[in-house]
Structure formats: structure tokens, C-alpha cells
Amino acid sequence: MATDAVSAGAGYRPAGVVRVGDRTRGVAILLALCFGWMGAHRFYLGKARSGVFYLLFCWTYIPLILSVLTVLRWLGTSSEEFDRLYNLETIRLPAP
Predict the structure, then answer these.
(1) Could you report the per-residue pLDDT of 41-92, keeping only the tens digit for each?
(2) Which domain does 70 fall in, by range?
(3) How many domains would you assign to the chain?
(4) For residue 82, what are the CA distances in angstroms to 26, 64, 74, 79?
(5) CA-based end-to-end distance of the chain
(6) In terms of pTM, does the model score above 0.70?
(7) 69-72 — which CB contacts under 8 Å span 24+ positions?
């Protein structure tokens, strides 16, 4: 029988899912708004490869436009969804 917390989904993570970061949506949005043209939010989220591309093209308006679109997308997501995307990672469990 499932407990109330598990059935409600509060804090429940399936087996093999671990927390890899403590990144918050507010800090990511703030970085994207202030320094999004050079990819600071991408580095904060652990996406260094795309952060480098932002730096390479920071002289164009492309990273600025992408960061504004990213902020708009993040404003429409919940904190749980943001956490799932950027703070949780699936790992392989050893065979029993």
C-alpha cells in the first residue's frame, strides 16, 4: 500500500533518479536577463557547451534573443518541472 506522500507525488523520485544540482529557477532567470547575451545562465545550469556557443556569438543578437525566449519559457514552467529538467539525473542501477 502506498503512503500518502508517495501517492500525492510529494518529494517522490523513482529509483535511479538522483539529485545532481541545487540550481533555482529564480537565479537562472536573473542570470539570463542580465547576462544572457554571453550565456551565464547556460554555465550556471551546467550546459557549458551551449554556454561556449553563446560566448562565441555574443557579438550578434542571437544569444540575446535566445535568452529572452528562454526566460519566457521558464516563466511558464513550474519549479518542479525546472527541478526535473536541471537538477535531477537518471543513472543506471546495477543488476541485482
Answers:
(1) 999 999 999 999 999 999 999 999 999 999 999 999 998 899 888 887 777 7
(2) 22-90
(3) 1
(4) 10, 21, 8, 5
(5) 24
(6) yes
(7) 70/32, 70/36, 70/41, 71/29, 71/32, 71/33, 71/36
